[in-house]
Amino acid sequence: MNSSRQPNILVRLWLGFWRSVTALRIGVFNVLFLIVLALIIGVLLRGGEQLIVESDTTLIVDPRGFLVEEYTGTPIERALNEALGEEVGETRLRDILSALDRAAQDDRITQVLLSTDDLIGVSPGVMLELQEAFAEFRNSGKPVIAYGGFMGQGQYFLASLADEVWLDSDGLVLLTGYGLYRQYFAEGLERLAVDANLIRVGEYKSAMEPFIRSDMSEEAREASTFLLGDLWQRYVEMTARNRGLPVAVMAELTEQLPRQLEQANGDGARAALEAGLVDRLVSRPELRAEMAQRGAPDDNGSYRNIGFMSYLAASQPQMRAPEGQVGVIVAQGAITEGVQPPGTIGADSTSRLIRQALHDDDIKAVVLRVDSGGGSAFASEIIRRELMALREAGKPVVVSFGNVAASGGYWIAMGADEIWAYPSTITGSIGIFGFFPTFQDTLAKIGVYSDGVGTTPLSDAMRPDREMSDAMERLLQSFIEHGYREFIGLVAEHRRMSVEEVDAVAQGRVWSGAQAQERGLVDKLGTLDDAIGSAARMASLGEDYRFTYVEPKLEPWQQFLTQMGARAILAAGFEASHPLLDLLPADFRSGLLADLTQVFNSTQGGRPGVMAHCLCEAPR
């Protein structure tokens, strides 16, 4: 008989936990070592040879992924992705605009090739920005050629900005129109026995509607139809004008694509050519030969060219002697509490940038560039108050709306001297909601129950394993209604409107920038450059001013190390804590988790998610 005994359960649990920690520590340090090694090798392979722009060079503008105001993540994260050969799915709008501005004055650049193949989409808002930038470049007399294979409506709009649009011989132009479609979770959550406790104010506040319905409400359908109709009409008008087509003809082309393709026997390229959507059909070898003939051949049988990002690194901007500067602060992504990396608006991190601009004597005015559907109402108010403090200190504050500036994205803008938007910005959504799901019935399905005692009716109020009490529901309803009154009261104060006037255009309804201006929610329509110019005039900077982006002073490697660990733990914990979600279809589950993540990431300290968020994004 074996007399040895196994250690008790606590000892075994501790040993297992310690082995896991040791394995995790070793794994993390191994990953960091490989990353640093890859960076060193990348630097050595690239070498230090300076890039020289030769004469008769073609500038290639080939945006990748989505057009954004700022990259998501820290500089080191992006460098690591590049070193490890991972694609960067984002292109900063400002980089395209800067490259075009410099190239217009650069005699070495003779033409531009606009490649659309790696672009995922263009949101309606930034179309005005791109249109003005390409129009300014073409005024220099240098031609712009657009080329691509498959062109959706985002890629095609970008191509329409060129002098000529060339389509691959096997290509296709597909203009499907704008749509806002969401998955509705009510029946699925009912099957999982999840209680979706939603408290909202606003007849049109449909952000979390999918959690309590299986279809779109009539209010949401009405508001979305009105918004999308305006955005699509503007798309058709701008694209028609770019292509020199009557608007009625362009509208008919977008509605008759199936018939046109049938008439071309399924040849999408020929159908696009016959419809006047493109000017020529060319293969890639033909493209290279034509560009070499128009510009200059290179030593590899192609044409002399440089990518726009390399061009920015190799060229120097023409500097003007400044009398003062306008500081531009980017607020992109969901609004959350705490310190957040670029691509997310953190109450503390964004407020820190505002204070940085406040204490910089060279910055005489500030433009807040907003591209956000909102988030935490509490965090939004913190940022608004920081902007008010900046304004009260004597520095003019102008807000420029990007693709989306809705709900909390509108809230943070209210403290500005002036609000600018694109005609196609998605804005408004003035309303808030509270959301706190409970899983007591879900747990009961596997025989897990919760019981106990407390000292007050609210002792169990914030437990996701217990049904929300009537007392907590009344508390939240009162709190949300107060938040809505505060929201519309602030809008009324800053926009010089009555509360009744604001309430009539609020109720959570979303508007385009042009519609918002008609209703007094926006001051002017224009580009970021227009907003910067207005801020400069408010600060009496004259015509000879510069603008600079206000960016974090925190060392990038510190941000990277902190965020990398936090994200890995959060992702692992979130997935592991919801095994029952594996019962759902993949698309349903991903949509559900995306919305829940927006809610949970916007609050801290175990509070219910009190949100000023439209959970919307610009159609592409």
From TrEMBL:
Record-annotated Peptidase S49 domain positions: 137-293, 390-539
Keyword Membrane part of the UniProt annotation: yes
Subcellular location as annotated: Membrane
Active site: K205 (proton donor/acceptor), S407 (nucleophile)
GO BP terms in the entry: signal peptide processing
Gene Ontology cellular component annotations, sorted alphabetically: membrane
Domain of life: Bacteria
Keyword Hydrolase: yes
GO molecular function, one term: serine-type peptidase activity
InterPro entries: ClpP/crotonase-like_dom_sf, Pept_S49_pIV, Pept_S49_SppA, Peptidase_S49, S49_SppA_67K_type_N, S49_SppA_C
TM regions (residue ranges): 21-45
Keywords: Hydrolase, Membrane, Protease, Serine protease, Transmembrane, Transmembrane helix
Family, similarity comment: Belongs to the peptidase S49 family.
The protein, known as: Signal peptide peptidase SppA
Organism of provenance: Wenzhouxiangella limi
